[in-house]
Amino acid sequence: MGEFSDLELDGRVATAGDSDWDEARQAWNLAADPQPSAVAFVEGPDDVAKVIRFARETGHKVVGQGTGHGAVAVGSFEDTIVIKTERMRGVEVHGDARTARVEAGVHVSELGEAAQEHGLSSLPGSSPNVGVIGFNLGGGLSWLGRRHGFACNGVRAIELVTADGEQRRVDADNEPDLFWALRGGGGGYAIVTALHLDLVPVSDVYAGALLFPAELGADAIRAYRDWAATVPDEVTTVVRFLRPPPIPDVPEPLRDRPLLTIDGAVIGSQAEGEKMIAPLRELGEPIMDTFDQIPASGLSRIHMDPEPPVPGLGHHTVIKELSDEAIEAFAGAAGPDAGSPLLLAELRHLGGALGRPADNAGALEKLDADYVILAFGLPMAPEMGEAIEKSLDGLEETMQPWAAEGGYFNFAERPSAVESILPEATCKRLTEVKRQWDPDELIRANHMVSLTPA
């Protein structure tokens, strides 16, 4: 324990001398290999404040971690104490007000289940066990997003601990600049301990996935694009090339089989959903069709993202306009004939409320693009990593002629500065917030602004 013996918490401090150190430092994304000085498993905001004050006194940095889905993008953990909030799992839903208070360790699926009991929904993404806090700090791209916008702009107040070790609650009237920065600008400005957020009056949706042979290729993606251009904001969908790995968790008929999948959600009745999705069913004979009227709490599982920890390497590109040429290029680089080692390469449909300025928005006001590409590979063996990274680079280079400026925070899986993701004016304001609240850069996170001149 060494110098950390003086750090007394209601939770627990783990260090390299502990028998379970490798487990303690592990992130959900097993491709990350964090080597921090210590890991603090905190029980509440008092523990967080103690860790921050201790870090300041001993010359350490701190980084908050709910699940560790984005741990690869943090980069170095040298001289850092990881504040793991996984024990903070409180959820309070106020049905009449359509709001919830969510502590820092809560998963998206847990919030969805609590909201469902009141006939409401959060704005869930495609992974059930990503943390609500990280999801919102980086924007929150949801299956209900084209109708209700980015999840971060439904946050109404934030409980946090700042770099001076003080507990605070911020909102539009109290420290509004800090409140603004944490809604879509990442977590490098304070350690968040709870969010107060709006819920939406959606209890069930028509949602699921269509799985086709990947050979449908560019023709199917063009048909999908033409269909997507006609749908109302109540429809949010994704098309992707997917090759499930040959592992027991995957149904045998789908193992190692190249697929083209379309999944998404329609806000409305089953009859409305069936009518909306009908043109997609005409693309070919589906291998599997899971679309049905489901509780909104099931939305985070329709994309079939892995739930146990896995190693993942990813990259993304924001696409201004999906032309025929862009589709051909995408299919050529990621389709079944590309010989790619990637697990998936997908096109997520944006637009609607995601492309319009939100009222009283945070740092992520809107995303001015039609689609965002996310590609991922699973380096199940060390030698696979290089091939996956090469394929990710190749896909990005191929799609550059149609790329929009910037990116989307939560899909930026590689270490990078926030200046490569958000607009210049936004980054300047974020820098001022960082300078005011953390001038010593004690708090680390993925995609940070820097106060150190280049």
Task: Furnish the topology, listing elements before pairings.
Blueprint: E1 12-14, H1 21-25, E2 38-41, H2 45-58, E3 61-65, E4 80-84, E5 91-94, E6 99-103, H3 108-116, H4 132-137, H5 145-148, E7 155-161, E8 167-170, H6 176-181, E9 191-198, E10 204-213, H7 217-228, E11 235-242, E12 259-266, H8 270-281, E13 288-289, E14 292-295, E15 313-319, H9 324-334, E16 344-349, E17 371-377, H10 384-399, H11 424-437, E18 443-444
Helix pairs in contact: 7-9, 9-10
Describe the structure.
- The chain is an alpha+beta fold and 454 residues long.
- The chain contains eleven helices and 18 strands.
- The longest helix has 16 residues, at 384-399.
What features would you highlight for this structure?
454 residues, alpha+beta, eight-stranded antiparallel β-sheet, five-stranded mixed β-sheet, 11 helices, 18 strands, globular
**Helix-strand sequence:** EHEHEEEEHHHEEHEEHEEHEEEHEEHHE
Q: How far is the N terminus from the C terminus?
A: 36 Å
Strand content: 15-25%
Total DSSP helices: 11
Task: Please give the number of β-strands.
Answer: 18
General form: globular
Task: Report mean pLDDT, rounded to a whole number.
Answer: 96
Helix/strand/pairing class, anyone?
alpha+beta
Low-confidence segments: none
Largest sheet: 8 strands, antiparallel
Percentage of residues in helical conformation: 10-25%
Output the radius of gyration.
21 Å
